[in-house]
Design goal:
Number of strands: 10
Strand content: 15-25%
Shape: globular
Order of helices and strands: HHEHEHEEHEEHEHEEEH
């Protein structure tokens, strides 16, 4: 059993946190989250999960965080190239690495080893958890990694809106930032959110979607 630590209200209030200095649109959605932890992005197909995460990657790279993007779903094909141009990754390319994984599934051990040899990377984006051969026993190790790095995980969901797979469900439970994507809008579903509580991924698409679904 771990050692219990006792502190005071004063000590907690005096503690400083290393937070992300988001620009206005991102702050309005998600406030100022810490630079480490696990973020979980989930939603149904064709609602904007990957587009949102690529915009998030640009924002994190813009403020100087080194990001690795594990592109399992799209690889580095033409659609991914078009998305890079659309979301202006070329403007922040010195802070972004792209790992194109050809394997149908990638083991947790392989990614852990990759991070060990690339310690300058501060953010890891996984697209998607369903292509990551991760077991529940690996989650504690991932939490250790998340003490010093930010891990952003994209997940598919079932028809009922729950993440697809037991590992994905557990990661949603422990995530410090839970982001539901629907109708090209990303909404904070956890304890941390900004004044608007959501981020618009594609204004025209979001306007059309919510005009037809209210």
């Amino acid at each position: 059993m771990g050692r219990k630590r006792r502190t005071s209200v004063h000590n907690v209030l005096q503690k400083d946190y290393n937070v992300i200095p988001y620009s206005e649109a991102w702050y309005n959605a998600f406030s100022r989250p810490e630079r480490t932890g696990i973020w979980f992005v989930y939603g149904k197909p064709t609602n904007g999960k990957t587009a949102f995460t690529m915009q998030l990657t640009h924002e994190l790279a813009r403020i100087g965080m080194n990001v690795v993007y594990f592109s399992y779903e799209e690889g580095t094909g033409l659609t991914f190239q078009n998305s890079i141009r659309r979301f202006n990754w070329q403007d922040v390319q010195r802070n972004i690495l792209i790992e194109d994984i050809n394997d149908r599934f990638i083991s947790f051990a392989k990614i852990d080893k990759w991070l060990e040899s690339n310690r300058r990377v501060k953010v890891m984006v996984i697209d998607s958890i369903q292509r990551w051969d991760m077991k529940k026993k690996d989650i504690s190790k991932l939490q250790q990694i998340a003490q010093t790095k930010l891990i952003v995980i994209i997940s598919h969901v079932k028809d009922n809106g729950h993440p697809d797979g037991s590992v994905a469900n557990e990661l949603l439970r422990i995530a410090s930032l839970k982001i539901w994507v629907e109708g090209f809008r990303a909404e904070s579903k956890g304890r941390l959110y900004g004044p608007l509580k959501h981020y618009i991924i594609w204004p025209e698409g979001a306007s059309t979607y919510y005009a037809n679904n209210i």
